[in-house]
């Protein structure tokens, strides 16, 4: 399985959904980590949004 941004259940860019699918965890848990994390998670999210390719297939 390859890390890709999710098209299913996305809010902004699908980064959290893609990470949740890759690690087989709840997308809510991943979003909470990004939301309650320090300001550095904002920059990590932007970096991942630019680097992780979008999933071309609908699940």
Keywords:
mainly alpha, 59 residues, PspC domain-containing protein
Question: Would you give an account of this structure?
Answer:
The longest helix is centred in the C-terminal third of the chain and has 12 residues, at 40-51. The chain has one domain. It is globular and about 30 Å long. The protein has three helices and no strands. It has helices at residues 15-23, 27-36, 40-51. It is mainly alpha-helical and 59 residues long. Residues 2-54 form the Phage shock protein PspC N-terminal domain. It is found in: Cell membrane. It comes from Lactiplantibacillus plajomi. Its main location: membrane.
Count of beta strands: 0
Could you give a short account of the major beta sheet? none
Rg calculated over all Cα atoms: 11 Å
H/I helix tally: 3
Low-confidence stretches: none
**What count of structural domains?**
1
State the order of secondary-structure elements, H for helix, E for strand.
HHH
- Residue share in β-strands: under 5%
Helix content: 40-55%
Shape: globular
Query: Helices and strands: which structural class?
Result: mainly alpha
Distance between the termini: 13 Å
Averaged pLDDT, please? 84
Summarize the entry for a quick read.
By secondary structure, the protein is mostly helical. It has three helices and no strands. The protein has one domain.
Helices and strands in order, then pairings?
Elements: H1 15-23, H2 27-36, H3 40-51
Helix pairs in contact: 1-2
């Amino acid at each position: 399985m390859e890390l890709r941004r999710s098209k299913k259940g996305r809010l902004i860019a699908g980064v959290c959904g893609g990470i949740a699918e890759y690690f087989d965890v709840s997308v809510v848990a991943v979003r909470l980590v990004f939301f309650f994390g320090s300001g550095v998670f904002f920059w990590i999210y932007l970096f991942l949004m630019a680097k992780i390719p979008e999933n071309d297939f609908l699940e």
